[in-house]
Design a protein that fits this description.
Elements lengths: L7 H13 L3 H10 L4 E2 H8 L3 H13 L3 E6 L2 E6 L2 H15 L2
Antiparallel strand pairs: 1-3, 2-3
Length: 99
């Protein structure tokens, strides 16, 4: 791997990605969204979280383009939007659970 000087924007994006992956609630949400899309209510129910907490975390993840949503009527359905970060998350989980 060649040495590469990182510009400020790249440094910021990388640090924000790791910030996103440093929060247990966001990890739980992203891990869930690796499998299929979910509504905010479904995420809250599945992970036993408040709807406002889930909405707050999804807004953070959407701003980083780690999740995307589609609207069906008044319901928003969220899914993963960055397979690179999802692969990084999966690798981290595999590393943590490897015995």
């Amino acid at each position: 791997m060649s040495k590469q000087h990182l510009d400020e924007e790249t440094l910021f994006v990388v640090s924000q990605t790791f910030k996103a992956l440093s929060d247990p609630t966001r990890i739980r949400i992203l891990n869930l969204l690796c499998e299929e899309e979910y509504s905010v209510n479904d995420i809250a129910d599945t992970l036993n979280l408040s709807q406002s907490s889930v909405s707050h975390q999804l807004r953070f993840l959407k701003n980083l383009r780690l999740v995307k949503f589609r609207r069906e009527g008044t319901t928003l359905y969220y899914s993963e939007d960055d397979h690179h970060v999802m692969n990084l998350l999966k690798q981290a989980i595999e590393h943590a659970t490897h015995t």
